[in-house]
Automatic annotation (TrEMBL):
Gene Ontology biological-process annotations: peptidoglycan catabolic process
Molecular functions (GO terms): N-acetylmuramoyl-L-alanine amidase activity; zinc ion binding
Protein known as: N-acetylmuramoyl-L-alanine amidase
Family membership noted in the UniProt record: Belongs to the N-acetylmuramoyl-L-alanine amidase 2 family.
InterPro entries, sorted: Amidase/PGRP_sf, Amidase_domain, PGRP, PGRP_domain_met/bac
Pfam families the record matches: Amidase_2
N-acetylmuramoyl-L-alanine amidase domain ranges (all copies): 25-149
SMART domains per record: Ami_2, PGRP
Domain (Peptidoglycan recognition protein family): residue spans on this chain: 17-143
SUPFAM superfamilies, per the entry: N-acetylmuramoyl-L-alanine amidase-like
Amino acid sequence: MRSDLVNRKDTFSTQAPEIMEITYNWAQPLSYDLNPNMIVYHHTVKTDLTPQRIDELHKERGWSGVGYHFYIRKDGTIYRGRPENAIGSHAQGVNARAFGISLEGNFNNEYLTMQQKDSLIALSKYLMNKYNITDLKRHKDVRNTECPGVNFPFEEIKAELNV
Ligand SMILES: [Zn+2]
């Protein structure tokens, strides 16, 4: 079987995709009462950010640390940000009920890599099944922002996830 077909099949699995765990030192205690019914998609704008660097940048904003729950690099690697039961800092107004997933890149002038798209779909599918989530949003759908950029393939991703 062609390897791309094997990967395609994995994309639709409801099993957890591989997530790289990072140990963060939270500047302030997190609130562990996330009640998720939404996923919000973001882009980082800057490239070449490690998850540790995002954590530093978000601490510089006065936050506890990395505000996203997940960060997907251009090579498709998924990194853990905040724990799945912790409220994030990524979309003011919906943080108490939304997972935040950020993708490396500026999708106003770049495109997701195939690996990023596959990881995003696999991660979304996993979270949607685990938490019974059907509400997918771009950051721009809940706040006045360009995030995650005009090239973010939202319709394609929703179609892949049957929403
Ligand atoms: Zn955003």
